[in-house]
Structure formats: C-alpha cells, structure tokens
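Final report, closing paragraph on structural work. Over the funding period we assembled a curated collection of sequence-structure pairs, and we close with a single example.
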Amino acid sequence: MKDSDLLAAQRRLRDEVSRSLVQDGEFAIPDLDEIGTVEEDVDAMAQVFGLLASYCLGKGAAMRHRKAGRIHEALAAQRTCESVYAALPPVLKW
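Its predicted structure, as stored:
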C-alpha cells in the first residue's frame, strides 16, 4: 500500500470514529473499553482525542500568554490552535 493510500485510509477511519463521537449534535464520550478490538479503531480514536487535547492545550497557553501581556506568544499559540482545528474531522468542528 502506498503512503498516500495509507494516509487516505487513516483519514477515512478517523472521520468515521469522529462521527461516532457525535450523537444528536452533542459530543458523547464513549466507553473507551468498548471501542473495539481492532488496533486501527483504537489508533483512530487516539488521533481524534489527541487533536482535541492539542487544541485545548494551545487555547490554554494562548489565554495565559494574553493575560501576562505576551501577545506575540499568544498569537503563536492561537495559530497552533487554528492548525489543529483545520485538521479536525468536519463533524467535530464547531
């Protein structure tokens, strides 16, 4: 399998897993012990949660930098958040 095919397959799986996290328009935390026994499913779930965690960490850093008057650093952290947001599957974007 070519790298591009593998990346496309990973993206499709990540999107599928992301859709399973949204129920009736609300984010729902699944029972992580029941997400499946297929390694790829678990890896895709980790990718999705990793992206969300990265966004939260960046947002917190940007807020702290702004509060301390470090605007340049706050803007850099905000750009990181924007990059992470762009990588989120559509169903998880707000």
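Strands lie at 22-23, 26-27. The helical segments are 3-21, 39-67, 71-87. We thank the funder for supporting this effort.
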